[in-house]
Amino acid sequence: MTVLEIEVYLNEVLEPWKFEDFCFNGVQIEGNRDIKKVALGVSFNEAFIEKAVDWGADLLLVHHGIFGKDFFKLRGYFKRRVEKVLLNGLSLMGYHLPLDAHPEYGNNASIIKALGLKLEEPFDIGYIAHYNSPLNTNAFLDRLRNVLNKQKLQTYIYNPVVQRVCVISGGGAALLKQLEGKVDTFITGEVKEHTKELARELKINFINAGHYATETFGVKNLGMLLKERFGLEIEFIDVYNEV
């Protein structure tokens, strides 16, 4: 099948036209291969491309693809990345904010489900969720580490229990101030200089769970959809980044 046929299907699922994003969502580089093997990854970089080529991929499907719209500057590291894709006849697809925000297949909804939380309401590109009964904070952190494959967590803890949680995968630290009085715990993938003291003043547990670690879920879900719908071979290529 063609990459454009895959794009039609994934656009129906993710509805990218609903988002004002930093990039074009969908096919970013159109290759010349029929698509049989799809390499899944968090970010479009040289290490990911090389591993995908070694595996025999026809399509690269990532969360962080080519950022920017309506521009053309092909030089340096960016030229080398694109060159490797084109010379190998590959296609590149990227879905950014639509893949964070999707209520079933997105990064945030997937983390919430894995933690056993009940999804409550959207918040920015993430969600607020809750437990019916409070959970000891240390037990919650152990649960989160297991969900994220033992990812090292950066934590600022100001509540002994967890019940109402906001999850924003990737770079969500700036949204902390908007959560006052809404949650007792905030999970995201980055930290700012002011985060620790602001979390203390708001009495919100702040957990930096890593940008990469919080954004592996969505592309894996898309891969499973493509496998089930079209019988495509899929492989998640882990280019781990502790940040």
User: What's the mean pLDDT score?
Assistant: 97
Helix and strand pattern: HEEHEHEHHEEHEEEHEHE
Q: What is the domain tally?
A: 2
| Approximate strand percentage | 15-25%
CATH class category name of the largest domain:
Alpha Beta
Q: Tell me how many strands there are.
A: 11
- Tell me the distance between the termini: 36 Å
Give a short account of the largest sheet.
6 strands, mixed
Q: What is the architecture of the largest domain at the second tier of CATH? A: 3-Layer(aba) Sandwich
User: What overall geometry do the principal axes of the alpha carbons give?
Assistant: elongated
Catalogue the unreliable spans.
none
CATH topology category name of the largest domain: Udp-n-acetylmuramoylalanyl-d-glutamate--2,6- Diaminopimelate Ligase, Chain: A, domain 1
Helix content: 25-40%
- Let me know the CATH homologous superfamily of the largest domain: NIF3 (NGG1p interacting factor 3)-like
**Structural category:** alpha/beta
Number of helices: 8
CA radius of gyration:
19 Å
Binding site for a divalent metal cation 1: 63, 100, 211
Keywords: Metal-binding
Family: Belongs to the GTP cyclohydrolase I type 2/NIF3 family.
GO molecular function: metal ion binding
Could you explain how this protein is built, in words?
There is one protein chain. This protein folds into 2 domains: 3-95, Udp-n-acetylmuramoylalanyl-d-glutamate--2,6- Diaminopimelate Ligase, Chain: A, domain 1 (3-Layer(aba) Sandwich), CATH 3.40.1390; 102-210, Udp-n-acetylmuramoylalanyl-d-glutamate--2,6- Diaminopimelate Ligase, Chain: A, domain 1, CATH 3.40.1390.30. The protein is built from 8 helices and 11 strands. It has helices at 3-14, 46-55, 76-87, 97-101, 107-114, 137-147, 195-202, 217-230; strands at residues 26-29, 37-43, 59-64, 91-94, 118-123, 126-136, 154-156, 161-167, 185-188, 205-208, 233-236. The protein is elongated and about 55 Å long. The strands form 2 sheets. The chain has a 6-stranded mixed beta sheet with strand order 5-6-8-9-10-7, with helices on both faces. It has a 5-stranded mixed beta sheet with strand order 1-4-3-2-11, sandwiched between helices.
